[in-house]
Design a protein that fits this description.
Blueprint (H helix, E strand, L loop, with lengths): L1 H5 L2 H26 L5 H30 L2 H22 L1
């Protein structure tokens, strides 16, 4: 959406980079607060909550926008490809 609005790849990549920096900074902040309460049950609960939020956002917001601005099949291929990569990585680690 940023690229379509500005027609500038530099701005789109810059905004994506800055937005991507928020995740590790937020993770360090949350770890600093939660390290005293850390246990396996809390970790599983947090992972499940974050995974649910990410799936909801992907299916409800990102996928329809990708279909609107590009080729329908490419967005579906990307979704399925991402699921395959995640499933494969989980199988290799577990």
């Amino acid at each position: 959406p940023v690229y379509m609005a500005t027609r500038s790849r530099v701005k789109a990549i810059s905004f994506a980079f800055v937005a991507g920096l928020c995740e590790p900074i937020g993770a360090l902040f949350a770890f600093g607060i939660m390290r005293f309460y850390w246990n396996d049950q809390l970790l599983g609960l947090l992972f499940a909550a974050v995974a649910g939020i990410m799936v909801f956002i992907s299916l409800d917001q990102l996928l329809p926008h990708a279909e609107r601005y590009g080729h329908h099949h490419y967005s579906i291929y990307g979704l399925v490809g991402g699921m395959v990569v995640m499933a494969t990585s989980l199988l290799l680690v577990a």
